[in-house]
Amino acid sequence: MQLVTPSLKWESEHQAYCKEWGSSKMIPNSFSLDGYTDYSVYLKALRLKQKGSEHWVPNSNYFLVNGEQKIVAMVSIRHELNDFLWREGGHIGYSVRPSQRRKGYGARILEEALAKCKQLELGDILVTCAATNVGSAKVIMHNGGVEAESHRDENDLETRRFWIKNG
Fold first, then answer.
1. Residue 84 maps to which CATH number?
2. Considering its fold, how many domains does the chain have in total?
3. Where is the N-acetyltransferase domain (predicted)?
4. Which of 8, 39, 78, 136 has a Cα at 20 to 30 A from 50?
5. How many other CB atoms are there within 10 angstroms of residue 4's CB atom?
6. Residue 142 is part of which domain span?
7. Residue 24 burial class via C-beta count within 10 angstroms: exposed 0-12, middle 13-18, buried 19 and up
8. pLDDT digits (tens, 9 = 90+) for 42-61
9. How many angstroms separate the CA atoms of 124 and 3, rounded?
10. Is 13:71 a contact under the CB 8 Å cutoff?
């Protein structure tokens, strides 16, 4: 298992990953291929987003790849929090490929992301999940997450918020 950065090498595997999710919006935003007709254009846009802008905080993005060179999970690490991320998104957004769930990849990618957060010297890390996502909550708690006050959005959807000591 290894973390790799998105590149042209991963184009077909990334497309297959997204296709497996169907119309679900559970893939971290920075990994969505919606609206991109060319993967090189997506990669260029991703590099710009990673630097940060008025719409995006600086972030790092990785695929978790198994020994068969298959993307089993994805993670986006936000280097800072804006108001939205403080309430709902947190420092880390991750997803596990639907066919690869219940194999420990969620815990593994979060563990790897937390190690990257230490390298970035980010301090304590906020990780969130939908209140209905019991599996993700267990993964976060397994990695040291301590639950804080939840957030309800304008549609009354609840987001559970967890802090993980980073240091």
1. 3.40.630.30
2. 1
3. 25-167
4. 136
5. 13
6. 2-164
7. exposed
8. 999 999 888 988 888 999 99
9. 22
10. yes
